[in-house]
Amino acid sequence: MFLSCTKGININLTNYLNYFIMKNLTTVLFLSIFISLSAQNPLLIPQTIESTNINLTLQNGTNQFFTGQTTATMGANGNVLAPTIIMQKGSNVNINVTNNLGQPTTIHWHGMHISASNDGGPHTVIDPGATWNPQFEVMNKASTMWYHPHLHEFTNEHVSKGLAGMLIIKDDEEAALELPRTYGIDDIPLIIQTKDFDANNQIIHDSNSDDVLMVNATLNPFKDVPAQVIRLRILNGSSQRVFNLGFTGDKTFYQIATDGGLKNTPTSLTRLKIAPGERTEILVDLTGMQGQTLQLISYASEFGNGIYGSSSPGMNSSMPLTGYNPNPLNGNDFNILQLTIIAQTANAVTTIPNSLVTYTPFLTTNSNQSRSMTLSSVTGGFQQLNGNFTVNNVSMDMNTINVTIPLDNTEIWTIQNNSAISHPFHIHDIQFNIIEYNGSTNVPAYLQGWKDTVLVPSGQGSVKVITKFEDFADDTIPYMYHCHMLTHEDGGMMGQFVVVDPNASTVDLYLNDGFSIFPNPSENTYITVKLNEDIDNIRSYAVVNSLGQIVGYHKIHENEINNMYSLPIFEYASGIYMLKLFTESAIYQKKFIIAK
Ligand code: C2O
Ligand code: CU
Ligand code: CU
Asked: Are 187 and 231 in contact, with CB atoms under 8 Å apart?
C-alpha cells in the first residue's frame, strides 16, 4: 500500500508505520511529525559572500526544524549552514575563520587546489576563540566546491550539526557560455542532507536512522523557479546517504559539471547518482511549463544492494547495519524538492548549449607512478559494514604519513573496494579523471570530467583514476584521502599523503638514519647503499647536488627491490651530494662525497 502524504513523501505505508512503532514514538509525536512532513516550506537560499576578503564566524545556534523544541545547531555567520562563497579564478583571497564554537575544529575547502597549509585538513586546528587566516590564489576552474569542518573524529558531528557551505568558483570561460547564473533565481544551490533527530528534536550524528531529509536546512522544501532553463548546483552533504536523482515523469536533464568543473558537452540523463561529498551541476529546461510543478526525487528503490540508501545496504540482508532499517528513506523513492514553475524572467536562457568547455584529461602515458588503495572494514571481514575502517589495512593515524609523492608526479590510483558497501573516495588537493570503472575503460558518462570524489562500488568493485600532484609541496603538513561517508572517515578510512619537492631546502621530515653509504667519500664509479632492516622498500631515489638541483633520479622497479643497491656515480663531478630515498611513508637522506 502506498501513501501519498500531500505534496510530500510517497512511501510504503506499512513500512512507515512499522518504522514509527519500532522507533517507539507516541501517537502524539507520530502525528506532529506527520503534520510537519506535509507542510511545504520555501527553500532557504544561503546568503552569499562575493569578496576577496571573507570573514566567517563559526558559531553554535538553534534552528526551528520542527514545531516544539528547537534544535541545537552549528553554522557560519548564522545558526545553521554557512554562506555561499563566490570566488573568481585568479583572484587572491584572504579569509578569516573565527572559531566561536567553544571547541576545536578546522575548515577544509573541499575540491580546491591549494597548499596543504591552506587546505584546512585535520592538522590545521582552529582553537576555540582563535582566528585562522588562510590566504591563497584561486587556481580552480569555474566549479561548485564546498567547505566543511575536518577535525579528525569530529567531522561528522560538526557537519551534521550544520557546518557546511557551498563555494562557487567563476572564470572567464564559464562567463562566455550562455548559462543561467542568477544566484537563487535560475542558478540554485542545493545542499541535500539527511539527518537523524531524537525525541527532543536534537541531531544524532552517529546514526544510521537518518530519516529526515532537508535541502539547504529546509524540510519539505519548494522553490519557485522561472519557466526557462534553470541550473541546479547540487551537493550531497549527507554523512552517509547516496541519492539517485531524477524528476517526475523521468524528465530529461543535462549534467554540465562534475565535482571540479564544466564538462566538454552536456550529458543528458534521467537519473544521476550522487554520493556524499560529490557535486554536480544540471540544467533543467522548464520552458513553457509555467503553472506546473516538478518534483526532484531520489529514486532509491532502483538501488541495488551495496549502497547506503538501498533497502539493504550490504551484499545481502543477513548482516544489516545497526539501526539501518526500518527507515522510510531506504529503498523507497522520496521527494527532495518541489519546483513550482512561475513566469519567465527577462533575458532567460531557454536552450541547452551543445558544447561547454574544452576538456583535456590527464594522459596515462604521462603517468610515473601507480598506487593501489584498498578500502575495507576489518572486524567482520568482507560482510562487515560497521568498521573498523581501513585503507590498505591501516586506520587513520595522525602521526603517520602513509604516502609520499614527489612533486609533479602524474599518478594512477586504483581504488579497490573489499567491503560490502560502496564508499565515496575523496582525494584532497587535486582533481582526477576516472579512467576505469569496475575494470572497464567504458566510464559512465556522468563520471566523465573533473572529479575529486567517486563512489567505489561494493564487493570487489574498483575505480582507477589519474591525476597530477603539482604546484604545492610541503614536507610536514599532509593532505588527506578518505571515504567521504563521514562515519567511515572519522572511523579511520582515511590516510595522509605529503607532496614533496626533492629540490626544496626544508628537509625537516627527512630522516637521517635508515641507510648507510659506503665507501664515503668515494673515488669509485659506484657507491653501495644498504638499507636498515626496519625501513620500507624504496620506491625511488634522487641525487641532489650542493646547489639543490636534482642530478639523478631513478624509480625502483618491482624486480629491483632489494635492501642493497649499487648506485652509479661516474657521471658526477667531485663534490658534496645528498642522496634521498623515497619510501611509501618517508624520505631518508644522507650526504655523500665524491672525491675523484
Ligand atoms: Cu570534503 Cu577531506 O573532505
Ligand atoms: Cu576535501
Ligand atoms: Cu566508506
From this structure: yes
